[in-house]
Please model this.
Amino acid sequence: MVGMESFIPVITIDGPSASGKGTIAQCVAKALDFHYLDSGALYRLVALQALRDGVDVANVDALVKIAGNLNVDFQGEQIFLDNALVTGKIRAEECGIMASKLAVYPQLRESLIKRQRDFCREPGLVTDGRDMGSVVFPGALLKVFLTASVDVRAQRRYNQLIEKGMSANITDLQRDIQLRDERDANRGIAPLQQNKDARLLDTTSLSILQAQNKVLKWYEECCANKWV
Ligand code: CDP
Model:
């Protein structure tokens, strides 16, 4: 019946590269027992497949085809591509850079939208990316724009890569993050930006727990306002 659809709460956390949005989104999802979608992983998966197939970043048709045919399975924190574990592989900077290059194509973004919306299930969803609040889940209950200074983000990415046993160089990471910010912010479609209805959370001097608690507090406020 029209108007009787159940309401599924969605929290979107958008923001620049290495701002910690994935970590915060996962913690918030755990605290609320909600589903979690790492939308950047989808772009990284397309990038990984394209790199494996030797597809040029200018070959839009081939990239859109890869996105449409992606055989991906999210099992908790593990991600499988064609039944093979790729959780660590897609975190390589090479994949992140390629992902940001192919994310500029409108047809490719369009072909990933349904896949992303399918994650919206009871009891709720927490998702992170660049356009979760603006394009994919415009009706989200809470929209957060999470950021931090370039230096702090480079340090966080450095720690993350070293922890995963990958090599990293802080100066290269700072440069890559700045380039990625520019590319993500200046593209014609779904650019990285803080939308008017998103709350700004600068985590430069916040711990993970402090940032998580802030989002949970905002969420409680949004829930209270929704039902009054
Ligand atoms: O972890 P990091 O923030 O570096 O990247 P990510 O969230 O895994 O996303 C990788 C790339 O995919 C980004 O640089 C974006 O260009 C693109 N992306 C996007 O365009 N839209 C999204 N919703 C998520 C990621």
Notes: The two ends are 24 Å apart (CA to CA).
